[in-house]
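Can anyone check this?
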Amino acid sequence: IADLVKTLGLPADHDYMAFAAASWDGRPLTVCRTGYTGEHGYELVCRWDDADALWTAILRAGEPFEIKPCGLGARDTLRTEMGYPLHGQDLSLDITPLQARAGWAIGWKKDAFWGREALLAEKAAGPRRVLWGLRQIDRAIPRPHMAVFDGAGADDQGTVIGEVTSGTFSPTLKVGIALALLPPTTAADDTVYLDVRGRRAAFAVTKPPFVTPATR
């Protein structure tokens, strides 16, 4: 990907989570290194009217690299493999950054920001639920909003202890994986159960990422 970016005449050597102002074909452009798929990725931010020409240029420049376009569905499976929370699913007005393990992104030293007092109180008390990863034990594909049950097992109704926020089939691991909000007492390697179309399926609790990312 870095070679492709350089082929377009753009800066490709800035640090992870940094950005650089650039231009392409005389048009202003911002090159970001956020890599939301977990890989050594780049995001090109351009003006609306320049998007079509830039997209075409990327595909042409990427032909020697066997580039293939993909959509948000592919992006979603890759970011789930990394355990990256998605706004509106794993982060929302009802799911705080502390619950989603994104407290690192909060400027705690700032004197004022929206929600500061509520987040400080939650940090002091500890969040009532925490985002964990789930990996299939039984063959099943998890989906958002599926209920998570405790370890009572398939022969018992058990107790609902949480909810899946993101779930998919991992194209890398060839298994079902999910992100789910669970009680703070949950630990890695615990076994929980999902109600998958009326059938209880066992999943192992794990801390993401599910897949080791490429060198950044």
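Reply from J.R.: I decoded it. Helices lie at 2-7, 51-61, 72-82, 116-125.
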